[in-house]
Amino acid sequence: MNLWRNLPTVCVTLWILQRFIRSRGKGTAALEGTVAEATSNELSEVSAPSHGATESKPHRYDVFINHRGPDVKKTFAAHLNAALRRDGFRPFLDAKDIGLGEHAYESIDRALKGAGVHVAIFSKRYAESEYCLNELCDMLRSGQLILPVFYDVTPDDLQCIQNGPFQRGLESLAENGWKNMLPTWKEALGKVADLRGFRLDEVNGDEEQLIRSILVEVRSALPATLLAGKQRYGMEGRLKEALNKLDRVNVLGVVGMGGIGKTTLAMEIYDHFVSHRQFERHCFLRDVRSRSSSEPSQLRRDFMHAMGLGDCGVTNTGEYGRVFEGSIPGRVLVVVDDIDEKGQFEALIPDIGKLGSGSRVVITSRYRDVVTQAMAGAERWEVYEVLVLNEYDSRCLFNRHAFLSETPSEGFADLAAKVADACGGHALSLETVGASLFDKKGREDMEIWSEAVKDLKENEGVFGKLRSTYERLPTDGDRAMFLDVACMLIGMKKEVALTIWKSCGRCSGAQCSSSRTPGLALRRLMDRSLVRVDESGMLRMHDVLRDMGRDMVKRDSVKKERRRPEEWTHLWDAEEAAEVLSSADQTKPRIRGLCLGVGDRAKILGDGESAGLRGGSASNIASQLSGMKELHLLVLDGSYVEVRDEKSSWPEELRWLRWRRFRGGQLPSELKLPSLVVLDLSGSDKLTRLWEDDADIKLPVLQLLILSSCRRLVELAENFGQSIPKLKSLEMRWCGSVKRLPESIGLLTDLEHLDLSSCRNLVSLPDAVVGLGKLKTLILQDCVSLQQLPEELGKLTSLETLDLLDCRCLSDLPASIGGLKMLTTLEARGTAVTDLGAGFGMLTSLTSLSMYGLRSFAPGTFQGLQALSSLVLSRASADMGGLGALTALKNLDLSEHNTITALPKSIGNLKWLVSLDMSHCPELVTVEALPEGLERLDLGECPKLTEIPSVAGMKSLVHLDLGNCGSLRHVRGLECLTLLEYVNVSGCTSMDGRGIRIMGNRALRECHVGGSKIGVAFDNRWVEGGPSEQVITWMGNAIPLLTNGMVNEVVVSGDWTSALVLECVIAREAKCMSVILCLVSSGLGIFKKIEVKVLRGGRLIVQSTLNFCFPENGIQVWLCTLGREHQVVQSLQEGDQIHVYITIYNHGETCRVMEGAICVVHKEDENHILMMNSEVLEKKESEDMVLRFGKLVLEDTSDLQPTIVMAS
After folding, report:
1. Which residues of 79-109 are buried (b: 16+ CB within 10 A; e: fewer)?
2. Which of 458, 644, 769, 1161 has minimal CB crowding within 10 Å?
3. Quick check: pTM over 0.70?
């Protein structure tokens, strides 16, 4: 080894490389991986995985609580013990913590000696116990940290025994034979009195704040190994996000539904800052909502005391404001927990601006609007919404409370997963249900488990929190809208629901309590986290809130007694609704929402046997509907109701009728629904026409008609326009049999939205369409038979969106198109349109244009499109010389341009351009200039491209694709791009990238350099703040850093074929901080994926799909690092198995995996992680080398022999 030390670094690395390339056996044993587990103190050896983890026995207890039982055991000590356990520690309190069959005194002695922290609670009767005093002496002798807690006593009482609370106790012990121990005990008390401790009087008697301070000290005192088992599920990611926000703002509002974990997160934030001693003063004001009414003055005193101002004796708001102003010290941290009114916050902090520079304030509330109002005076503020836990964290939290372990007891795995999933990630529900099942693990208890979630409705701890939010809604209309969503409207588009609620403004029903300002009411429901709108614009609600809302419907709001179903306002269960309809009561005046059919097995009303009715008939059911005077919402999905042409057959107040999978060929000929605003008949395969041409249909206020997926619908009635004059939206997606629309559609002067996408037999639109003066959106996507648009299309002066995607028979746009002055979006890809006429330049509002195969356009066209921000002209052949005039352009796609040889220099002047795609341009040779503000640049697959300008000035570039530009000679400035997340220079075989290093980039997620000779840094310190997943690929045939762990080569071929290529077992209890995967493979094509699965006891815990890129030929090394925040790494525990699979998508493709390895990193020191292979160097030498060089540069040499270069 001394010889190697004297060789140059390059020789050392070459020698390392040679030792890495190992021979592979050809045995038939099952494929096994290797585990390289590294810490900062030792370099672990690589060994084959075992199928059982060795059990390491840590300290049994983390914290020893020394206390006087009669004083504090059932109060403060019990509360501290519970708080430590909730925080993941193992405290020892008393004999209850001793296992059966263990010797009490020996167990106490072991607990005291093994604990990492000792907490001594000094109370007035402490000195009466020789046990307490002897334990105190033992604690001092142990040398471990002692945290004194002075509970109703002071340090002076320990120093000066005479005339103090301890005098009588010591005298009594002396009388009972302990006189010779008095000097020892007094000395021990004196030593502890000199230690920095916690005093109840310093927190104004607030035991909760005292406990929080002790927890902070325990966390900072215990070594990382003891904290390894500490689990705060889902909290690490939340805390990091919140702290990142607090780096940018001085006030953070934490919002979310009740029981979701807002206060827990606020405590984590508070403890983080306090433990790092970043503020001069700090204060956590908990449960402000309830305390503001019961003890407002005490809240103020607590705050002022925590700010070091003592008891200022303030008695009113004005006096408090004067004391507050200018009195708060420099840099403070304040947490104001659980407010529901702005005034509650202002009563404590009248002016945020008066807090010292660098101060931070955290506010928690269920009400977003209250938080934003409270933060309005802050210089910089943000809102953080606490969302539900993911599936993994939910199950772990549930199991921790049900089994005191993350793993369920034998035989309960599937049942526990179902119960946990039913709680929907709601933290309080998971804790409550889990704890309720803790002692129910016998076979005879399995039925109880299946009922556990239903019992939540009776749990005031959970539903009480949520119910209070509902009950505190300001109006009856807010509450009615909440119940509408909970019972009937989950999954409905927000705009549709608002249409229904707005129509209630003219409601004649005496009982209708819908809000007269539904937009504001819905905003309030969202602000209180009772309802949310997802990314698709659909109304959503947590399952627990849904159940709570439905439970409110079932109970009398005053008497809290359960109502009979006939008295409910909403009936959402078809079985129950059928029973109610068959009851003797004919009026049922309360029913607002009714569901008589759901799913594919909907009830056929009128069939007494299938509907569960007693002698019911179709006409009887129809007449009963007419008796529901307040019925607003009706679902008849898949149901058949015989309707005799009588006005009385339908409730006059009906607003929404959803009748999907309607069973008839057409609607009744005299259908009269005077208040109906939404009719949904989607999926009605038997519907051939809407109604007869001479039918007396009266839908005078209908605004939305949904006929999507009525595949046999041939035509609409000729009187369609006259029957529904107020229609605003008509959806006819996937009506594949419709060939024409009636001319009367031109009478729909209020129509704003017309969706005819995938009406594949539609040949043309009626000329009357141009009379739709309010039409804003016209969607004709995938109308493959459409041959022309109306010549006077330009008369649609309100049209904003015209979607012609894949109208492949459409070859021309009408000359009048220039009249569409409001048009902002034109989608024409997949059409036969290849020329833009002179009128096109008149579309001055156009912001987005997409089309394929453009051959020509009138001169000056681009000069008229000054608002254009997105332009997609793929597969074009037209000259692009005028693009420089598009000064507002942000996204430009000229991919697959057939003739362009050089990108116009004027493109460099487009200062707002952020994305440029010129990939797959076969004739492109040079790019003369590029805007420096680009964030995304794609020039891949341009085989003749030889030159591009330097990218050094593109400081915002995050995505760079130059893949397979085989003639490209240089990429200057690549090493300057510190924000790059994706870079692909693979296949750039003419490039001489030697000396170019992609280094120091914390954002890099994906890097492909195969064939370019460019080196890329692999930071083996794996700094915090980097990506959770990083992939690096290059050409070669050797694994760096790791020894080959595969027994056999693996060949994967075929269509959707998967094969296991790597596996390992986690063999340590210490927390996993990263996982490095490496494969050496070859194969044709790119249609492959890699999946990583974590198994625990044979059961899938986590599954993740990783980025995988193959060259079309050659051998490639794929190195993927999963960071500490990746779901795979976060889930790992001792004994878990990691399985890595590769999947082939396309038939005929083959992938060959020749080598592979897994390295599991256990991080104990944030400064470095050792990943050198112990078979190459001795441990000490390897450690010295990594500490010395810090980073590794993986250099692509394109000669199948990659070099590993050390770089300082």
Report:
1. ebbebbeebbbbbbbeeebbeeeeeeeebbe
2. 458
3. yes
